Amino acid sequence: MAHDEPQAAGPTKLVIRNIGLLLSGAMEKPILDADTIVAENGKITGIGRAKDLNAEGATTIIDANGTTVTPGLIDSHVHPVAGDWTPRQNQIGWIASFLHGDVVGLKAMAIFAQRAFWTLRPGGVKVHAGAPVIENEMVEEDFKELAAAGVKLLGEVGLGGVKDGPTARKMVGWARKYGIQSTIHTGGPSIPGSGLIDKDVVLEADTDVIGHINGGHTALPDNQIRCICEGCKRGLELVHNGNERSALYTLRIAREMNDLSRVILGTDAPAGSGVQPLGILRMVSLLSSLGDLPAEIAFCFATGNTARMRALDCGIIEVGRSADFVIMDRAQHSAGKNILDSVQLGDLPGIGMTIIDGIVRTQRSRNTPPATKVPEIVGH
Ligand SMILES: [Zn+2]
Predict the structure, then answer these.
(1) Radius of gyration (Cα) for the chain, nearest Å?
(2) What is the pTM of this model?
């Protein structure tokens, strides 16, 4: 409750002009030919050339200074516990710290959390929380009640008592029937107390997302990862706190199958590896550089792919969607000649500003390397 977030008092109109590079988040057209975005009352209303858009009545004008605008980055896999404190690492304020790296949308496990997190938004970050872990005693009616109470996500299948394919499949089916999305723990146990979930259980459970297909931390053998990729059409989630070699292997398989739109990114923080404020940017850079992937496509894994898979209204620069943006630039002294080149060389970009629901939340990031150029607020 200590957070007093900037709230828009009346109607707002945001204009971001002089954009050097606009990444859409959508794989079919990752780079847009536009230098200006207009957003009214938190939603995008115009994308194009400055001369073709109506900037009249703007309440905030941002000069991007030729830098890059991307959709707000989405972390598909986090484990918030109580507010902004994580007992596993005894850290406080970690969600706002993510904002300085990346995040606008997160998913969570605590059953009480959905409403709490929708009210408590550290730094304005949107936390999609309240994801119960399924247990053997649950019946169809429980899923109906959860859905009616606003729960939209299940916690990782496999973390609770249900560890067998047939029971998981039955409950995932009930969840889907009532509009609740599901994900599964894939691979060896993360921490003492959790168990192995292999390809047979993953494929039988048929969750919407194959949670950390690269392990959290212990990955399945490559032949099992291949079987999962080929055996279903579900989302393939790659996490920072997993096996990085297996992430690159999964990327290779997805690309061979011409199925890159299934790839989404998460951190799996705060796990044993800790809280990773730059985790999503680090994944983008890892996959782009070592996976030999154009950086603008890697950014889609962290934005549009996740938004589509999880039915979020952010993640893509498109009229009607949430005005959630990150303004970034090549980090100072990167060997890359521009931002995309620098990411493909393995560097992180520098974040100059984050905007959520059309409101500026942070300016130069305290966590990323400093951006070469930063945007400025030039008018109110
Ligand atoms: Zn897991």
Answers:
(1) 20
(2) 0.90
Q: Retrieve residue 53's tokens.
A: 């858009």
- Report the candidate in 159, 289, 298, 282 with the shortest Cα–Cα distance to residue 216: 159
For ligand 1, the distance from its centroid to the CA atom of residue 157, given in whole angstroms, is: 8
Instruction: Please state whether the peptide bond connecting residue 185 to the residue before it is cis, i.e. omega within 30 degrees of 0.
Output: no
**Sign of the Cα pseudo-torsion (111, 115, 116, 118, in order):** positive
Confidence of residue 110 (pLDDT cuts 50, 70, 90): very low
Measured on CA atoms in the order 367, 369, 370, 375, is the torsion positive or negative? negative
Residues 130-162: pLDDT tens digits? 677 888 888 999 899 888 888 888 888 988 888
Q: What is the pLDDT of residue 114?
A: 59
b/e per residue 308-340 (b: at least 16 CB within 10 A): bbbebebbbbbeebbbbbbbbbbbeebebebbb
Q: Determine the distance separating the centroid of ligand 1 and the alpha carbon of 259, expressed in angstroms.
A: 23
State the distance from the centre of ligand 1 to the C-alpha of 190, rounded, in angstroms: 6
Strand boundaries in 158-255, DSSP class E: 183-184, 209-210, 235-239
**Lookup: tokens for 263:** 């790839």
